[in-house]
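This entry is set out below.
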Amino acid sequence: MSNRCELCGREPVNTTVHHLTPKEMGGTFLPTANLCIPCHKQIHSLYTNRDIVTLGLTDLQSLRQDERMIPFIRWIRKQPATTIPRVRKSNHVRKS
C-alpha cells in the first residue's frame, strides 16, 4: 500500500501497521500507526516490546521526541521514499 508514514512523514511509501502498544503487552485492540518499513524496523531494532511500554513510547509524539529516534528520523526524512536501509536487531538489553 502506498501511503504516508505517520512517523517520518515521507510519501509515497509502503506502510506497515505498527501497534503503538505491542500486542504481547496488551495492545491488540489499542491504537496503531501506519509506518514506513524503515521506521518500523528502527523502532523494533532499538527497543524491546517491554522497553516501548516502560519508556512510554506508545504514541507517535513520544517516539518522535525520543533521543534514540531523533537522529534516525532526521536522516530518513532526507532519503528517497524507496530507501529501505539495513537494520540490525540490537542485542542490547536494557536493565530496569
Notes: Residues 21 and 27 are 5 Å apart (CA to CA). The two ends are 38 Å apart (CA to CA). The helical segments are 37-46, 49-54, 60-65, 70-76.
